[in-house]
Write a structure and sequence with these properties.
The chain is of the alpha/beta class and 290 residues long. The chain has seven helices and 14 strands.
Length: 290
């Protein structure tokens, strides 16, 4: 089904409930790797996908035949797109789990090659957690002369080090319990081209919808506990969103594209599309799940 706007989607969902999750939202800023993003989420086991795309982004050829995917037409290249669609869905599916990402982004959680997203969520809920903290790991093509937009699944690389965290504080400069700001990847190495508010790589993008819960513009949630990186009693599971989004932006924006002829450095490593590799690099945590 194709909806002409977020409001028409919400009105239809109120008439015909969306059923059980988990649900995934894909915010399409362009057509790049849109099909592979949707396929990846389907393979992980999400029951329903909501593709948010502007009118000028062509849909994948088989989208009309894929009943798991619903399309919502909305301008996605302006601030506030993620909160607008995520907050609309939160109100419609209280108690269900939601993941959101952009096109050319791929969710990985521990052991996701053998286990479905429903299994991971069930384990997290047994641990009395209603969020899986996610970290955006930048991907980039090995050769930018061959892949000028920096996107290549076959030659994807990532940074194997250079990630760090700092204490998160509130408006009164008080330290927030178990909350950290995480940095690294291309946003760190090319920070002169990235506005300070957009340099963080932490994102609360896999969580359980709750009445009154909202997503903020900075990718945090309105419930402080859902922005914590771990629970009080032991390490919690985390996940990664492996993303070409920053590499694409650095190669396409006029202010940066002439300053970037390669993203490779001595800490670059080939990405094998493996959750085990991400865990070995310390980029996500299995917690107590084995």
């Amino acid at each position: 089904m194709i909806h002409s706007s977020i409001s028409s989607f919400a009105a239809q969902a109120r008439r015909t409930p969306l059923g059980r999750g988990p649900f995934a939202i894909v915010i399409a800023e362009d057509r790049t790797e849109l099909t592979t993003t949707l396929d990846h989420l389907t393979h992980l086991g999400f029951r329903r996908l909501f593709l948010v795309a502007p009118d000028d982004v062509d849909l994948p050829d088989d989208i009309d035949d894929a009943s798991i995917v619903e399309v919502i037409r909305h301008p996605t290249r302006q601030p506030g797109t993620a909160p607008a669609i995520v907050n609309a869905l939160i109100k419609l599916v209280p108690g269900e789990w939601i993941h959101y990402c952009y096109n050319a982004e791929y969710l990985f959680f521990p052991f996701c090659e053998q286990r479905r997203i429903g299994e991971a969520i069930a384990f997290v809920m047994e641990e009395r957690r209603n969020v899986v903290p996610t970290y955006v790991i930048d991907l980039y093509a090995e050769d930018l002369t061959r892949y000028t937009d920096a996107v290549s699944l076959e030659t994807a690389h990532l940074d194997s080090s250079g990630y760090y965290a700092e204490t998160r504080r509130n408006a009164d400069d008080e330290v927030l319990d178990r909350q950290l700001n995480f940095y690294g990847g291309l946003r760190w190495r090319f920070e002169e081209h990235v506005p300070a508010p957009k340099r963080r790589i932490d994102r609360s993008s896999l969580f359980q919808a709750m009445p009154g819960l909202t997503l903020n513009d900075d990718h945090t949630l309105s419930d402080p506990e859902m922005n914590t990186y771990t629970c009080p009693w032991h390490h919690s599971m985390s996940a990664t969103v492996c993303s070409f989004r920053v590499a694409k932006a650095l190669r396409s924006n006029p202010g940066s594209r002439h300053d970037v002829d390669s993203f490779r450095w001595h800490k670059s490593t080939r990405f094998f599309w493996s959750s085990q590799q991400l865990m070995e690099l310390g980029l996500m945590e299995p917690g107590q799940w084995f």
